[in-house]
Amino acid sequence: MAASTPIPPTIYLGTFVHSKSLSELEICDQGAIGVDSAGVIKFVERDVVRVEDVKAKHWEWKDAEVVRVEDGFFFPGFIDTHTHASQHANTGLFGKTTLLSWLSTYTFPMEASLESLTKALTIYTNFVSRTLSHGTTTCAYYGTIHRFSTNLLADICLERGQRALVGRVCMDTDLSPEYYRDTSVESAIEESAASIDYIRSIDPEGAIVRPIITPRFAPSCSASCLAALGALAQETAAHIQTHISENKPEIELVASLFPASTSYADVYDTAGLLTPRTILAHAVHLTPAEVQLVAARGAKISHCPASNTALTSGCAPVRDLLNAGIAVGLGTDVSGGFSPSILEECRQAIWVSRFVAMASSDAAKLSTEEALYLATRGGAAVVGLESKVGGFDVGMEFDAQMVRLGSVSEGGDQKGEFEAGPVDVFGFETTDEKVQKWVYSGDDRNTVAVWVRGRLVHRTGRYVK
Amino acid sequence: MAASTPIPPTIYLGTFVHSKSLSELEICDQGAIGVDSAGVIKFVERDVVRVEDVKAKHWEWKDAEVVRVEDGFFFPGFIDTHTHASQHANTGLFGKTTLLSWLSTYTFPMEASLESLTKALTIYTNFVSRTLSHGTTTCAYYGTIHRFSTNLLADICLERGQRALVGRVCMDTDLSPEYYRDTSVESAIEESAASIDYIRSIDPEGAIVRPIITPRFAPSCSASCLAALGALAQETAAHIQTHISENKPEIELVASLFPASTSYADVYDTAGLLTPRTILAHAVHLTPAEVQLVAARGAKISHCPASNTALTSGCAPVRDLLNAGIAVGLGTDVSGGFSPSILEECRQAIWVSRFVAMASSDAAKLSTEEALYLATRGGAAVVGLESKVGGFDVGMEFDAQMVRLGSVSEGGDQKGEFEAGPVDVFGFETTDEKVQKWVYSGDDRNTVAVWVRGRLVHRTGRYVK
C-alpha cells in the first residue's frame, strides 16, 4: 500500500453508486469501472452480465485485475473540506464551553504542544489513519503554527496516499496566548511561505498534497497579517482556508476589531482573501449581503454541522447558500466536531437541515441524496478538484470506497459480535434502501477498502476482492 | 450465558462510574463492587488498594470471583424506555416521510409480516442481540398485534437474560390498514390479556420480563378500546405504554377524533391510562396544562430525540418536563429512531437540547452528566425499577456494562483496523475526560461485556476478566 507501489490496471465490478446531481443518485447494480495504471477512469459500463463481456469490448484490458464487490457497493471517496488534525486528541472534549472559551480551555494548549515532532507524529499518523478508515480520500487540514509539524503532516498524507490540503496556521493577535502565536507579521508570512515551498517540493504537481494558506480566523489575525496573507495567496496561487461567522459573540468581536469593515465577509474581502480558491468554514450566520459577496467572489463554504451543534453555534442555512449558487461541502471540524467521519457528518447535515425546517419551511430539509452529494461532488468543488474526483465519470481519477453491509441469517444473529458493523440487511432491501441504511446507521466498519487515484490506501479484514 | 447458569459471587474491581444525581456523576477510580449469587450488590468499596484488603474486610467473599476492568470502567446498564422491536428491519428507512406517511409506507407492512413466527424469530433475536451489544440491560418493547409473536419476543428476552417490558400492540380504528388491526374491542382485550397471562406464566415474579399494555396511540384506538385497556390495566396492575404529542398533524388528528377531550393527554386520562405505571413516548408538544396533568398523575415520559429529529417531529423541551417533576428516560424508538444505541440517544438528547437552547435559553441545555442520568436512573424510574437498577448502590441488582477504550501507541496507529473501536485515548486524559470521549464518540465496540442481575449476557472478543 506504499505510495510508490505500481498500480495494475483494474476493473471494479459490481454495484456502484454516485451522485448524478445535487438531488439524484445513480445506482448501477451491474457496473464495471476500468481504472488504468495512472488511477484514471477509462471506461464505465452498465448492465454488465459477465466480466468477459467487458474484457471483450475493451480488449486491451484482458489482463486487468478484477475487484468485485459482492454484497455492497462502490461509492466515491468522501471529501472532508475542513478539519483540524492538530485537535484530534481532544475529540469528544467540550465540557460546557462554546467557541471562544473552548479555544482557550482545550484547543490552544493542545495545538501548542504539537511543536514536538514526536507528539505530532503520533497524533497526525493516527488521525490520517482514522480519516482514511472512514472513507475520506481528500481532506483539508489545519495543522498548527509550527512549520515543521505541519510539513510532517503533509509528509504523512503523501506517504499514506491521502489527498490533502495542508495548512500552517497563522495568528498574530493577543486573542491567542503568548505561548502560541506568530510573533510578527513578517515571521508569520515567512513561516507560511516556507511551508508552502516545502509541500510543493515533496509533490511538485500537487497530485496528492497541496499547501493551503490558513489564517485561523479574523479575530486572531491583525489586518496587516490578513493583507499580507492575501498578497501571499495571489503570489503563490495557493488555496486559502479560514473560518467565518461561526457564532454570534465571535461576529460581535470581529465587528469591534475591524470597525472599518462593513461585515465579517468584508474583512476577508478587503484583505484579498475572498477568492475562488477560498474555503470558508461554518458560515452559520452570514447576512444576505455577505452571502451575495461570497457568491460573487466564487468562494466556497465548508458546512460543519456536528461542530455547530456541539458548540451550540447555530444552524447554517445550507439551502439558502446552495440557492445563492455557492459551492458547499461538508467538514468534520474535529475537535469542535466530535467525529472524523463524513458519513456521520452527512447525518448531522440532515438533522441540522430539519431543525432549520422546523423553524422556517420544509424546503430547508436536505435529502439523503443531497447530503451524499455535499460529501462527494460538493466537497470536490470546494477544494477545487471537481473535474478529478467526487464521482465515477470517465476521465476522473478513481477515489473510492468499498462499502459492505452485514447480512442477517435466518434465526437472527445470536453471537452478538457483529463484526460486519452496525447495518443489518435482511434480504428484502433494494440497493437504494441499502444505501439509506448505510447512511443512517453505517460506520467505519462498513468501509472495508479505500482507494485514492486507483491506489489501495486502506483496507480492513472484511475486504475481499 | 444461559439464563439458568448459576452465578458465582463476584467482586467487580476497578474504576466505576454512575450517576449520583441528575447533574452529578460519581467517578470512583479504585472501586470494588460485591455482587452475590442472586445478582444483588452487597457492598461497594472505594479507595481500594488491593483486592486482598476487600476480601479481608468481607471475609465471606474470600472465594469470590474477581472481574477487573483494566483500561476502562464499569457503567450501569442502559435503559431503553421506548422502542419497537418489530420495526428493527426497517432501521434507517425513512424516505421523505413524516410520522403519518411513514406509518403507512414503512411501518404497517413490516409489522403485519411478523405474524410469521419464523420471521419474528429472526428479527427479534437479532434485535435483542443488538440492544444487548449496545449495553441495554432493560428495554420497553413494542411488539405487534400478534399475540404469539409478541410472546416469542418475551421468550427471547427471558432466554437471553435481558430485562424487558413486552407489549402486544392494540389498535382497532381504520387509521391502521384492514390487513393489520384488531377486529373488535373484545378481541383486542382478549388477545392482550392472553399475552399478559403468558408473559406472567414464564416469569411469575417479573424478575426479567413483564407484560405492558400497549395502545399504539390515540388515533389508532377507539375511545371504547382505550377505556377497556384502562380497565385491563387496573385489573392486572400491568404497566402501560403509548405515544403522545409526537408531531403537529397527529395532535390535530387527535383533536378531531376526540372532540370531547380537552387535550391529547386528557384522552388518555379519561380512559384511565394516565397512571404512575404509564410510559408516554415523545411528549414533544405538550401544553403547560398537559405537563401539569401528566405530572399530577405520576405518568412518565420517554424522550426519543433521534426519532423526533429524523421524522422532523420537533424538539421535546426536556428541561421543562424535568422541572415539572416528571420522570424522564431515553428511548431509541427504532425505527423512527435510526439506532438501537442509548449511547447515541444520549448524544441526540444533548444535541436536541442545544437546539431548544438556541431558540430559547441556555438553561435548556442538557449536560453530559444529565444525559447519562436519563439513560440510567431516569430510565429506571420510567420503567418502575428505580429501586433495583440504574446505579451501583448497595441493595440494587447488578445491571452493568464494562466499557473499554482504545489506546494510541507512540507513533500512532498505522494499521487502520481500530478493533478497539472509535475512541482514541492518548494517555493524558482524566477518567472524567475518558467518559466524555466515550459519550461523544463511543459505540458498541466499547461495550465489551454486559451483565443483568449479575449474569453475563453479552461479551465481545475484547472482554477479559
UniProtKB/TrEMBL annotation, chains A, B:
Keywords: Hydrolase, Metal-binding, Zinc. InterPro entries: Amidohydro-rel (IPR006680), Guanine_deaminase (IPR014311), Metal-dep_hydrolase_composite (IPR011059), Metal_Hydrolase (IPR032466), Metallo-dep_hydrolases (IPR051607). Its EC number is 3.5.4.3. Its cofactor is Zn(2+). The keyword S-adenosyl-L-methionine does not apply. GO terms for molecular function: guanine deaminase activity; zinc ion binding. SUPFAM superfamilies: Metallo-dependent hydrolases. Signal peptide: none annotated. GO terms for biological process: guanine catabolic process. Catalyzes the hydrolytic deamination of guanine, producing xanthine and ammonia. This is Guanine deaminase. It comes from Melanomma pulvis-pyrius CBS 109.77. The lineage of its organism: Eukaryota, Fungi, Dikarya, Ascomycota, Pezizomycotina.
